[in-house]
Amino acid sequence: MSLESASTLPEMSEVWHQTLSWYPTNEQQNQLQKLYELIIDANRYLNLTRITEPEDFWEKHLWDSLVGVSPQQRFIDILHHGASVIDIGTGAGFPGLPIAIIFANSQVTLLDSTRKKINFIDGVIDNLALKNAHTVVGRVEEIGQEIQHRGSYDLAVIRAVGSVSACVEYCLPLVKTGGLAVIYRGSFTAEENQSLENAVNIVGGEVELITELKTPLTQSIRHCLYLRKVRHTPVSFPRPVGIPKQKPL
Ligand code: SAM
């Protein structure tokens, strides 16, 4: 249990600009700071994150969340124009909360199977007065079969929730035909690339782009996998709870 209190996030305007061709507004900067404070405070009784130092938090949570929706150093166009977004297995709200903070025009659904984490995020949404974010508690294998969610999102994002092929099976059923899924990874191996191609093909997608980059402060490796949904996902996917992990595609 940590008894830390949050300090001030580092001032990173120039790094934002160099890496994402973007400057946060003062309001966005204040909201990101407030998010940091709320997470550090709740970390005293909830196991939300081990990344608590201001520079680490900035790089590994905030910057990392936004770089995934900024392939080739530009934010994905649809986010500016009112995309519907789902963050699968959002945990403490990453990458979904930074996306909601920066893209007020987009509607962001934050999904997690853990009620306590979703309760925490509900508090953040209230505290930051985010009108474009809401939460869902549930297992993605079930949510992906529900009519109000299946094939409904322009963009699905997923970070640190399972193997590459499990993430593919979680994401693509939720995306509209023509929409995009982004899988955030640290390392990404040749074997994973094979299982990626196989899984994407089964659930109706194509691999559009894979980026490899280094984080700006600690030069850690990141990969982002961009998957385009090109046809309907067969009704049998996602398979029932636990199967995507136990029997990867
Ligand atoms: N995405 C966040 C991040 O990158 O900081 C949290 C990652 S955390 C390691 C994985 C989260 O996924 C947990 O909060 C867990 O409850 C959630 N999760 C795991 N399996 C899930 C499932 N089948 N459906 C919905 N949420 C799931």
Top keywords for this entry?
single chain; 249 residues; alpha/beta; 7-stranded mixed β-sheet; 21% strand; globular; binds S-adenosylmethionine
Summarize the structure.
The protein is of the alpha/beta class and 249 residues long. It has helices spanning 13-20, 26-42, 54-67, 77-80, 96-102, 115-127, 140-143, 164-171, 190-202, 243-246, and strands at 84-88, 107-112, 133-137, 153-159, 175-185, 205-214, 221-229.
Chain-wise SSE layout:
Layout: H1 13-20, H2 26-42, H3 54-67, H4 77-80, E1 84-88, H5 96-102, E2 107-112, H6 115-127, E3 133-137, H7 140-143, E4 153-159, H8 164-171, E5 175-185, H9 190-202, E6 205-214, E7 221-229, H10 243-246
Helix pairs in contact: 8-9
The structure holds S-adenosylmethionine.
Question: What features would you describe in this structure?
Answer:
The structure is a single chain. This protein is an alpha/beta fold and 249 residues long. It has ten helices and seven strands. A seven-stranded mixed sheet has the order 3-2-1-4-5-7-6, sandwiched between helices. The N and C termini lie far apart (38 Å). The mean pLDDT is 96. The structure holds S-adenosylmethionine. S-adenosylmethionine binds at residues 89-92, 94, 111-114, 117, 139-141, 159-161.
